């Protein structure tokens, strides 16, 4: 950490209170005061302000500046005044419940938490109850038992799968406590006000990356400490009036479902398993036939082809928040009966992706749908129809560069508020065909009659967990939960440049 000797270098440091992490009396035995006039001073006093320093690419780190003073009383007054200012930051958590998955990603969760995160929480006077999981669903089950009201937030250390577990625990607990039946796909779910913080230690970490702009444990810990809040849409997935799962990032059938299914057998490979299974799945080039029905999201202003992405303070998400508040005033918790039209598409698909957020991650910095919004009450439905391997590769490569991945004749994208899918196999067996799917027939697959469609079903990849049901019903719940994040900040480079300029000028 850098020490800024303010007076000696005739520099001041400008730090907004909201970005101060802690203020502490400086231990002069540890700090050297061998500079300038402080050296001559018999008994100097000092206090240190720890604050958020914004670096490039949305990275935050903890910096500090020490203020030296001749007068002990004056020094204490400063410490007192600054601590009082920090007390006014009411959104900051004081007590957190932490779940660590020791086996996520490269199996570094415990080390990451102990070495990088715990010291920051302790510096910020945050008390924690830490729980290291011993099996899958341990955290979820535990969340149904703990005295949740004791905590200002829940932190999960792991990947998207671990986040999903904690989210299921919290949302499930909330519905149970309010007597809401999760099996009813039309049930209006109760919002979850306890924020979740994600310390990335998984394989993809897409939820963290898409909501913070980087997968970095220190940056995420600092967003938790300053008490950031980012609402998040959550989609519920049902089959035949049975609740299956919630999803916030990717719900994918075909390509991403097959990758996940194959990669589960290769967990020992760590995050590399996705590249291995990705390559294998790419070569197998399976497509799947089925019927998709969806209700377009007419309430939101944006479109998936927008050039602008969702950023901190996004006006489109704010507008959805206002609509949600008005709707609540009008109907209470009751859902507005929605008779809006359903669109139906039948075809053969290499991938069917429903994404609630951009799904940006280190592998694909702009994600599967770069203009998707975190909290607008809609999801983007991406349909990749049967095409050649070469075309599919061209499509995949565009996830890694600046070119438009929707600008292909075999790719369609829609912004939706609900969605249903039934595989051809299931339709043929005449079980569980969605009535809507039966009634309307919109577009048909444009591919050639000679077909190499896989006769078996694919699996759904639901935030990194497999779902075996090939007939599902999905509904977006606007801003059902909140994260300790603020979305991706605009002009991040500019912000950090300005901050250091201020430091130099004053
Ligand atoms: C030619 C290179 C193409 C690269 C294409 C990269 C697209 C990446 C999009 C990633 C979207 C991720 C959505 C998030 C999913 C996660 O929720 C979920 C769970 O995460 P967790 O393990 O942390 O718990 N992760 C996943 O399902 C993993 C998705 C796998 C993405 C890797 C895809 C690699 C594809 C490689 C194709 C290679 C073709 C090469 C041909 C010569
Ligand atoms: N102690 C544990 N042992 C085995 N599995 C666990 C444990 N704790 C959590 N899990 C499960 O591991 C899965 C993957 O975890 P995650 O942290 O997302 O890692 P990754 O990103 O590598 O997939 C999650 O579905 C979670 O339920
Ligand atoms: Ca959304």
UniProtKB/TrEMBL annotation:
Segment forming the signal sequence: none
Protein name as it appears in the record: Ceramide kinase
Gene3D superfamilies assigned to the protein according to its UniProt record, in alphabetical order: 2.60.200.40, Probable inorganic polyphosphate/atp-NAD kinase, domain 1
Gene Ontology terms for molecular function: ceramide kinase activity
Domain DAGKc: 91-241
PANTHER family for the chain: CERAMIDE KINASE, SPHINGOSINE KINASE
Organism: Apteryx owenii
UniProt cross-references to InterPro entries, sorted A to Z: ATP-NAD_kinase_N, CERK_C, CERK_PH, Diacylglycerol_kinase_cat_dom, Lipid_Phosphate_FormReg, NAD/diacylglycerol_kinase_sf
A GO term from the CC aspect: membrane
């Amino acid at each position: 950490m850098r020490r800024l000797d303010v007076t000696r270098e005739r520099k001041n440091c400008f730090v907004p209170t909201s970005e101060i992490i802690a203020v502490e009396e400086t231990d002069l035995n540890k700090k050297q005061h061998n500079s300038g006039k402080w050296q001559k001073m018999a008994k100097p006093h000092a206090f240190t302000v720890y604050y958020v320093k914004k670096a490039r690419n949305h990275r935050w780190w903890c910096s500090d500046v020490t203020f030296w003073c001749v007068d002990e009383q004056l020094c204490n007054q400063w410490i007192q005044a600054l601590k009082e200012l920090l007390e006014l930051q009411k959104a900051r958590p004081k007590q957190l419940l932490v779940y660590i998955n020791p086996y996520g990603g490269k199996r570094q969760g415990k080390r990451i938490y102990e070495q990088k995160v715990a010291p920051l929480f302790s510096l910020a006077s945050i008390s924690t109850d830490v729980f290291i999981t011993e099996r899958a669903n341990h955290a979820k089950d535990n969340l149904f038992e703990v005295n949740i009201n004791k905590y200002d937030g829940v932190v999960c250390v792991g990947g998207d799968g671990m986040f999903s577990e904690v989210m299921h625990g919290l949302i499930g607990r909330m519905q149970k406590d309010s007597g809401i039946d999760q099996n009813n796909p039309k049930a209006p779910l109760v919002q979850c006000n306890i924020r979740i913080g994600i310390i990335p230690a998984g394989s993809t970490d897409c939820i963290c990356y898409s909501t913070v702009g980087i997968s970095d444990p220190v940056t995420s810990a600092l967003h938790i400490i300053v008490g950031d809040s980012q609402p998040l849409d959550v989609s519920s997935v049902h089959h035949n009036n049975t609740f299956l799962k919630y999803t916030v990032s990717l719900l994918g059938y075909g390509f991403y479902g097959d990758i996940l299914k194959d990669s589960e057998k290769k967990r020992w490979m760590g995050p590399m398993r996705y590249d291995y299974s990705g390559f294998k799945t790419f070569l197998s080039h399976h497509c799947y036939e089925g019927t998709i029905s969806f209700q377009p999201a007419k309430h939101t202003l944006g479109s998936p082809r927008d050039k602008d992405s969702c950023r901190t303070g996004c006006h489109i998400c704010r507008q959805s928040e206002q609509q949600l508040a008005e709707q609540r005033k009008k109907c209470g918790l009751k859902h507005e009966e929605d008779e809006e039209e359903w669109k139906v598409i039948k075809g053969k698909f290499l991938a069917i992706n429903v994404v609630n957020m951009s799904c940006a991650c280190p592998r694909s910095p702009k994600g599967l749908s770069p203009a998707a919004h975190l909290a607008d009450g809609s999801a983007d439905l991406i349909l990749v129809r049967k095409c050649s391997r070469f075309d599919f590769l061209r499509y995949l490569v565009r996830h890694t560069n600046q070119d438009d991945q929707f600008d292909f004749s075999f790719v369609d994208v829609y912004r939706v508020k609900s969605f249903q899918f039934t595989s051809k196999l299931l339709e043929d067996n005449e079980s569980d065909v969605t009535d809507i799917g039966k009634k309307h027939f919109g577009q048909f697959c444009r591919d050639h009659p000679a077909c190499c469609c896989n006769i078996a079903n694919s699996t759904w990849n639901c935030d990194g967990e497999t779902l075996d049901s090939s007939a599902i019903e999905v509904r977006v719940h606007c801003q059902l939960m909140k994260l300790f994040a603020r979305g991706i900040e605009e002009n991040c480079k500019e912000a950090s440049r300005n901050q250091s300029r201020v430091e130099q000028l004053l």
